[in-house]
Amino acid sequence: MTMDYLEKYRDGRVNTAKTLWVMKPIYLILRLFNKTVVHRPVTILYPYEKLWMPDNYRGRPALAFNTCIGCGMCARMCPTTAIVLVECPDDEGKPVKRPQVNMGRCSFCGYCAEYCPTDAMTMSPIVELAEYTRADLIYGPRRLAYDHTTDGMKIDIEETLLSDYQAGNGERRINPAKTDRPVLDNAKCISCKKCFKSCPVQAITMEEHGKNAKGRPILWPSVDDQKCVSCYTCVDVCPKSALHMNEVL
Amino acid sequence: MVYSSILDWVNFPDIMANPYYPFETYNLPYDISQKLWEIIGGTIAWLINLLFPGNPVSEWLVCDMTVNFFALIIFMIVVFLVVFIGILISLWEERKVLGRTMDRRGTMVGMKGFLQCVADGFKTFMKEDTQPRKVDRMTYMWTVSLVIGTSMLIACMIPLSDRWYVVNYNTGLLLIMGLFALAPFFILVSGWSQNNKYSLIGGMRAAEMMISYEIPMLILIATACLMAGTFNIGGIVQAQYDTMPYFIPQCIGFVTFFVCANAEAERTPFDLAEAESELVEGWQTEYAGMKWGLIMLADYMRGYVSCAMITILYLGGWNLPFIGDLNNYVPELVFLLKTWLVFFAMIIVRAALPRVRTDQILNLGWKVFMPLSIINLVIVLLLKMGGVF
User: Fold this and answer.
1) A36 contacts B101? CB cut-off 8 A
2) Which residues are registered as beta bridge partners of A85?
3) Which of A243, B124, B282, B283 is the most exposed place for a label (fewest CB within 10 A)?
């Protein structure tokens, strides 16, 4: 009678020595119990305790107000157009342009932080963004501040250029797009100085190249390579599309 | 009439000197209750005596018979409260240990999660008490009352030491086991009365399960009593203290009894009657609100009684070996700690093993536990005949 019941253990369908019958799960549970008593369980008490987050965690964008130069690169690169440049007073009361982020549209891709030429825009580890209205989700430049920015949050773009790749050189360059420079099509320029006025880093100087038929000076912008941050502002403001960006490819 | 001090009314006489003392030996909870009544009743008597000096009511409140009567009422409350808190602690233990075995934390509400029981109690108490229209009212209510009532009764009847008991007579163990085995009948009738297929299947399973584990379990109890030579719980514990805890000579019986006790308490892996992943809530499906809460409490009471039976029969009850007279200090606490230790083992089994099928529990009961309990009985008989015990 008992042997009938134990038949499956005898004919090899169930290897008792290998499975240890009920003792194996009990042993496993005791081992897990021991582990979770000595250390702590994997779950955490969320609102009171929080998980450690790495520096490159992509929470909401954060802005260092005084490091920002207002070039608008973030607004230009934002794939969801969550960022717009707004005018606001800086610490001395002068009006400056700074980004404003709509968290309702932000997709937390981190392009703004990657393309920021001065690393003023970073991704902070803050993820608790719930608000009562959509209007509250719009973060102004001052509200974007984050005090604990570390060096690890400042991201650079590392990429291999296509030309390098075709030449058999797999070198990963850091921020190659920052060596893009605006190039002037001389015939289109009307010497309006808009590029000179709008350059956020004062990299453009207007140089005189003779006089025109009316006797006015012909002024062509020249770009200081050391100062230029490749921000496209001059290209965007040019009324005659005389400037274009010479991209590093 | 002169002013009488409160100390004239509150005095703590020897409880054994009371001619109406209901027990034969010293009883600690009764002692506590009598002293409590001395304080309460004595104060009331003193206050009445201040207003109406020399009245007979004050005398009546502190006379021997009245003290005995009110002490018995407080005695019930004291015994129940201790058992109740012990059960709540085992409930808390289950939640915490189960949490740790699942790599989570368990309950976290107040006092390391202990107050979650209180919150749950309030929650079930506040719930609407619904009742299906087509149930058989009488059996529906009576069976659940009897399940809860018998569970509570046996939980209170488990003695915590030789001075903490409710009844102390020579067939105490049989009485407890008889009441303990009643629940499956009520579950069967209750499942039938609810007019619900889940409940009916749950009730049938309870009956089916009972015929498979009950007999080996009773044989094992009889074996332990045979070894001790008495059915008295105090006698069994004392016999183990004189020789050795019975889990050493009866190691087969100990393991078998542990599994059978698991089944008796209807805990996982033997919770066939209340298989919440197959039947909705088994035989408890149609019970709502506080009725369900009390059924859940009764489940834990039965778990506590199972653990207490194991402690009494195999682990030496409220005595610890090798420490001699130190056993006289807090035997109640030692007993409860041992019970919670056994309950810990039950929780680990619950966490580790899946629920058995009905045919598996029948096979286990009749083809494995039954021969094992007979083998255990034979071993005990040989030991007895060889004069070892």
Assistant:
1) yes
2) A99
3) B124
Å from A22 to nearest chain B CA? 7
pTM of the model: 0.78
How confident is chain B (389 residues) per 10-residue block, as mean pLDDT?
76 83 87 90 89 86 88 92 92 91 87 89 89 88 90 89 84 84 87 88 87 88 89 88 88 91 86 84 86 89 91 89 83 92 93 86 86 92 84
List alpha helices for A82-161, DSSP H. Answer: 111-115
Residue A107 sits in a domain whose CATH number is 3.30.70.3270
Flag whether A35 is in a domain.
no
Burial environment of residue A110 by CB neighbours within 10 A (0 to 12, 13 to 18, 19 or more):
middle
Contact residues, chain B, for A30 at CB < 8 Å: 348
Contact between B105 and A45 using a beta-carbon 8 Å cutoff: yes
**Residue from the list A4, A22, A37 with its beta carbon closest to the beta carbon of B100:** A37
* Six-digit token string for B169: 């007579």
Chain A residues touching B363 at Cβ < 8 A: 5
Whether A183 has its CB under 8 Å from any CB of chain B: the answer is no
* Chain A interface includes B375 (CB < 8 A): no
- Domain span at residue A235 reads 177-247
Q: What is the pLDDT of residue A105?
A: 92
Would you state the pLDDT for residue A6? 67
Measured distance CA(B77)–CA(B58) in Å, rounded: 24
In this prediction, residue A3 carries a pLDDT of: 66
- Choose, out of A29, A31, A37, the residue to mutate when testing the contact with B (most B CBs < 10 Å): A29
Q: Number of structural domains, chain A? A: 2
Residue B161 carries which DSSP code?
Answer: B
Task: Give the integer Cα–Cα distance in Å for B219 and B183.
Answer: 19
User: Residue A112 CB: number of other CB atoms within 10 A?
Assistant: 25
Question: A145 lies in a domain?
Answer: yes
Q: What is the pLDDT of residue A80?
A: 93
- In three-state secondary structure terms, A221 is strand
Is B14's Cβ below 8 Å from some Cβ in A?
Answer: no
Q: Which two tokens stand for residue B59?
A: 């005398």
Q: So what's the pLDDT on residue A19?
A: 65
Look at B348 and A30 and tell me if their CB atoms are within 8 Å.
yes
C-alpha B372 chain-centroid distance? 26
From B349, which residue of chain A is nearest by alpha-carbon distance? A26
Indicate if A188 and A241 belong to the same structural domain. Answer: yes
Is B101 in the A-facing interface, judged by CB distances under 8 Å? yes
Q: Does a structural domain hold residue A182?
A: yes
A43 to B108: CB separation less than 8 angstroms, yes or no: no
Question: What is the pLDDT at residue B336?
Answer: 93
User: Scanning every residue of chain B, which has its alpha carbon at the shortest distance from the alpha carbon of A31?
Assistant: B101
Query: Which phi and psi (to 5°) does residue A218 adopt?
Result: -90, 115
Cα separation, B344 vs B265, whole angstroms: 14
Q: Do B101 and A29 touch (CB under 8 A)?
A: yes
The pLDDT value recorded for residue A42 is 83
Number of C-beta neighbours around residue A214 at 10 A? 5
The answer to whether the beta carbons of residues A144 and A62 sit under 8 Å apart is yes
Intervals of chain A under pLDDT 50 = none
Give contacts of A 9-38 with B, CB under 8 A.
22, 25-26, 28-30, 32-33, 36-37
Sketch the domain layout of chain B as residue ranges.
Answer: 6-81, 127-385
Angle at B294 between CA B288 and CA B300, to 5 degrees: 130
Q: Is residue A164 part of a domain?
A: no
pLDDT at A18: 66
